[in-house]
């Protein structure tokens, strides 16, 4: 065995993945070559030290986010399953044929059907029974669009790219203000996102949940531990705008903390004057 | 167990390679040329410098050149505090450069050194960037047509001739960004605690802008149509009292549509300029 082969086999050897004959060759080479012996000794020490490093565990926050996404995905599947169930028989076989078509043909047929629908819609005005059916279909369509927006928001908010997470915050404006999962994800972003820009944007998006007590509590919790003056300023401004009296103790603590940025403390002073 | 072994194997190979490389190059500035083996899939480049600058220059798609320059001669004897002190505690500055590649994603780190080490990367123009500097250095990017995420603890951020989307944050520094073009579907965000922000956009810019400085000015060459309420402000309970004193501009630039543009500085001014 040559020195270069020893180098490439070092970590397979240390991890016990090197085949028996290769181990013998490597050990024979080590007997003869002092340089490789030294390299192996260094590598072995490093290997043991790396093994002593604690394994990182996912945080509870990450688990919450993953659960929320899985739940949204399940709901989407269940919804799709119900719709597919309704379309069994003729519908099922048509669906199979439709899926086998080339996308260009699918688009072409969809465009033609759309034009036809406009013409038919213009000639025959929907009345009675048809009106009700249309209304139901519209409600269902709205619900599906809502689910899709929720899924997109939750997915984007947990991407590694800050730009995509910002996009997720932007999408959250399209989701219903009653959506608890998106609210939880936004609060999560505010409390734990590593990027200041995303946290600042999250405060803006959470404005729409003003009446929700969990949002106010989450914001107060964040304000008490937030290190970035930019996020602090956003939160203080919102607390004052909302007339949030429960923020007074946190603000008083910030006023007396000399580590807080002087500009932030001036804003705290002004905020306290308005709140008290 | 397998994952743990695998991680140890990868880190081990890197550290061993790093030691060998340093043995050959001694005090010379670090330089490595990487032939891009996959020019079809998007390239992702993440660079992290603990003590020094990062400069990225857009270049050809088929290669990447990575250089590291000790800022002072004495840096050759700098003591390195490796995150994992496995191989060395005393080494020259260039030894602290590590490069890892996984599936067209390149991770370049300059580990802590006593004297600053500046990193210069000639990267494919379309490589998406995620750059981070900690001490004694800022970030500068030229001629890149890709997503840029830049974060500096205490340095300036300069991005010239950008033509995609940018998310930038610095604790104490200026942000100067000039765009040749922007993505209309991606949000952008620029935040600094103590520093001015100057953004130069093409004259046909369309964006939903939210700009805010507590003690600085907000000056725009673009006409901004003020929006009566912040985006997403759909609850009646919001806004019991007026916002705290700061210069806030919340409005639409150049007709309807365009990406969200968030700009925030605590003490600096914000300048929005038209590209000449």
How would you portray this structure in words?
The complex is a heterodimer of chains A (276) and B (276). Among the domains of chain A are: 3-52, no CATH class; 61-175, no CATH class. Chain A is 78% helix and 0% strand. Chain A is built from 14 helices and no strands. The radius of gyration of chain A is 30 Å and the shape is flat. The N and C termini of chain A lie far apart (81 Å). With 276 residues, chain B is mainly beta. An eleven-stranded mixed sheet of chain B has the order 5-6-2-8-10-12-14-20-16-19-18. A ten-stranded mixed sheet of chain B has the order 1-4-7-3-9-11-13-15-21-17, with no helix packed on it. Mean pLDDT of chain B is 81; it is low at 15-27, 73-91 and 233-240. Classes of the chains: A mainly alpha (276), B mainly beta (276). At the A-B interface, helix 1, helix 3, helix 8, helix 10 and helix 12 of A face helix 1, strand 12, strand 14 and strand 20 of B.
């Amino acid at each position: 065995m040559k020195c270069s082969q020893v180098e490439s086999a070092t970590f397979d050897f240390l991890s016990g993945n090197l085949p028996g004959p290769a181990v013998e060759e490597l050990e024979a080479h080590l007997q003869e070559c002092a340089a490789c012996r030294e390299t192996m000794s260094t590598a072995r020490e490093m290997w043991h030290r790396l093994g002593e490093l604690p394994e990182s565990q996912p945080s509870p926050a990450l688990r919450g986010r993953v659960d929320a996404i899985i739940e949204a995905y399940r709901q989407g599947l269940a919804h799709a399953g119900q719709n597919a169930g309704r379309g069994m028989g003729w519908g099922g076989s048509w669906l199979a044929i439709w899926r086998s078509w080339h996308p260009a043909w699918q688009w072409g047929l969809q465009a033609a059907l759309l034009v036809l629908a406009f013409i038919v819609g213009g000639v025959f005005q929907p009345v009675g029974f048809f009106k009700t059916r249309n209304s139901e279909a519209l409600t269902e369509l709205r619900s599906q669009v809502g689910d899709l927006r929720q899924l997109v928001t939750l997915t984007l908010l947990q991407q590694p790219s800050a730009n995509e997470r910002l996009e997720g915050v932007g999408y959250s404006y399209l989701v219903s203000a009653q959506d608890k999962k998106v609210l939880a994800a936004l609060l999560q972003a505010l409390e734990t996102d590593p990027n200041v820009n995303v946290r600042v944007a999250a405060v803006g998006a959470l404005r729409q949940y003003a009446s929700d007590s969990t949002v106010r509590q989450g914001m107060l919790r964040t304000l008490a531990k937030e290190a970035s003056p930019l996020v602090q300023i956003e939160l203080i401004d919102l607390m004052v705008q909302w007339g949030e009296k429960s923020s007074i103790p946190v603000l008083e603590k910030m006023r007396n903390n000399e580590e807080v940025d002087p500009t932030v403390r001036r804003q705290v002073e002004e905020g306290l004057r308005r709140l008290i | 167990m397998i994952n743990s072994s695998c991680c140890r194997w990868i880190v081990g190979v890197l550290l061993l390679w790093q030691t060998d490389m340093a043995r050959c190059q001694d005090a010379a500035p670090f330089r490595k040329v990487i032939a891009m083996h996959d020019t079809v899939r998007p390239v992702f480049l993440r660079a992290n410098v603990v003590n020094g600058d990062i400069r990225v220059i857009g270049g050809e798609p088929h290669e990447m050149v990575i250089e590291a320059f000790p800022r002072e001669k004495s840096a050759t004897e700098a003591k390195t505090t490796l995150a994992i002190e496995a191989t060395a505690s005393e080494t020259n500055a260039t030894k602290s450069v590590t490069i890892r590649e996984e599936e067209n994603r390149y991770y370049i780190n300059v580990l802590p050194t006593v004297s600053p080490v500046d990193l210069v990367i000639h990267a494919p123009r379309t490589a998406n960037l995620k750059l981070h500097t900690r001490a004694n250095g800022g970030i500068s990017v030229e001629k890149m047509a890709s997503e840029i995420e830049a974060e500096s603890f205490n340095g300036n951020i300069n991005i010239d001739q950008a033509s995609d989307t940018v998310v930038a944050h610095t604790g104490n520094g200026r942000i100067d960004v000039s765009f040749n073009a922007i993505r209309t579907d991606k949000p952008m965000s620029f935040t600094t605690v103590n520093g001015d922000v100057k953004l130069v956009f093409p004259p046909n810019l369309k964006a939903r802008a939210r700009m805010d400085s507590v003690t600085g000015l907000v000056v725009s060459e673009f006409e901004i149509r003020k929006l009566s309420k912040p985006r997403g402000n759909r609850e009646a309970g919001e806004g019991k009292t007026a916002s705290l004193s700061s210069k806030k501009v919340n409005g639409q630039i150049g007709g309807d549509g365009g990406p969200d543009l968030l700009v925030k500085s605590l003490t600096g001014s914000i300048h929005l300029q038209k590209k000449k």
